[in-house]
Amino acid sequence: MLVVPGQPLELQAVPVPALAEGELLVRVTACSLCGSDLHTAHGRRPHPVPTILGHEIVGRIAALGPGPAPVCVSGRPLAVGERITWSVCASCGRCDRCLQGMPQKCRQLVKYGHSALRSPHGLSGGLADYVQVFAGTAIVPLPDTLTDTAAAPASCAVATAAAIVRTIRQQLAGFGPDGGSLATRSAVVLGGGMLGLSVASLLAAGGVGRLVLLDPVADRRSRAVATVPGLVAAPPPPQIDQAWVASLLGPAEADRSDGADQRFEADGFDVVVEASGAATSIPAALELTATGGTCILAGSVSPTPGIAFDPERVVRRQVAIHGVHNYRPEDLVTAVEHLASPAGGPLGALAGPVFPIERVNEAMALAATPEALRVVVTP
Fold it and tell me: What's 372's domain CATH number?
């Protein structure tokens, strides 16, 4: 557990609490290390301590609380021995935010791997032998074809990516005659970490017309191209200009809006996803967004300096800016289905290497390097 930010994690024995109705006790089989775990461990964002970190978790149900068995997202009762993953949040389902379709922003939210040890939700982090799963948690059974290691990132990085793609489709559906179709759209993802690669993988599986990923690290670009079919990867330029944008978008496209055989030069990407969290990347994301385009900001999960941008550009281009943080239950279902599919298999294969929990500090150190995507810890 994390006792002092900036110091190594410690192994400690803690009691397993009695389960209440609607709760589960899960034996952890894998927990992958997310970037937010690193931010917390290094003291880059406020967090109660001591705490058990880890929220990308896979495990087997070891015990059920009293009363009726909890159900998975499909409504089926769960049983001891089932292998599951679950949402990063437990929500009440009754407050205004839950009723408005934002359970991840519930007024009574409980976040796995984010609670003080000395609280009613202390045994909620995945860097442990067991996790207490609370009522109001979206639970998804895992198919036998999906390994623990490959499935672990589903409950944060891949589910958040699914929420991003769902948001993109909803925005596109409000403009133009083709609804939320990606087929005629161009998209650029800023950042080749696990979140950015997950977004790219889901966009490719959704048939996006043109897909580009920007990352300054050559190894990350190579890995992205090898993971996502049809992806073009490039380093960010010192300065964004129209010629550079045009080179990434390829030749001028046919204007499909009125059926005329007219050629035009795009002024940016239809979809831009900022997945790196770098402060300097956010103005670039806005500058890369085409007229009528959608800009998703999702990588900034720790405090960063303020940014400067030209609001007139946003206004004149009618750019839609969306912040996406965490996800809804259906996004976790999409994440698991994608990782279990042929299209998502290469993404799941990127998880690892695997460390036993006794070597958790080695795992944390490796996870902090640019080369690592999702280091996995097992009890």
Answer: 3.90.180.10
Q: Identify whether residues 116 and 245 lie together within a single domain.
A: no
Q: What is the pLDDT of residue 220?
A: 94
Q: Count of domains in the chain?
A: 2
Q: Are residues 137 and 171 in the same domain?
A: no
Q: Are residues 180 and 250 in the same domain?
A: yes
- How would you write the chain as a 3-class SS string? CECCCCCCCCCCCCCCCCCCCCCEEEEEEEEECCHHHHHHHCCCCCCCCCECCCCEEEEEEEEECCCCCCECCCCCECCCCCEEEEEEEECCCCCHHHHCCCHHHCCCCEECCCCECCCCCCCCCCCCCEEEECCCEEEEECCCCCCHHHHHHHHCHHHHHHHHHHHHHHHHHCCCCCCCCCCCCEEEEECCCHHHHHHHHHHHHCCCCEEEEECCCHHHHHHHHHHCCCCEEECCCCCCCHHHHHHHHCCCEECCCCCCCCEECCCCEEEEEECCCCCCHHHHHHHHEEEEEEEEECCCCCCCCCCCCCHHHHHHHCCEEEECCCCCHHHHHHHHHHHHCCCCHHHHCCEEEEEEHHHHHHHHHHHCCCCCCEEEEEC
- What per-residue confidence (pLDDT) applies to 178? 64
139 found inside a domain: yes
The domain of 186 spans 159-323
Task: Report the pLDDT averaged over residues 295-319.
Answer: 88
Q: What is the pLDDT of residues 140-194, one digit of tens each?
A: 999 999 999 999 999 999 999 999 999 999 998 876 666 678 999 999 999 999 9
Is the pLDDT reported for residue 81 higher than 80? yes
Looking at the fold, whether 177 and 316 belong to one and the same domain comes out as yes
Say if 362 falls within a structural domain: yes
User: Within this chain, do residues 311 and 336 fall inside the same structural domain, yes or no?
Assistant: no
Q: What's the pLDDT at 257?
A: 47
Please check whether residues 139 and 209 belong to one and the same domain.
no
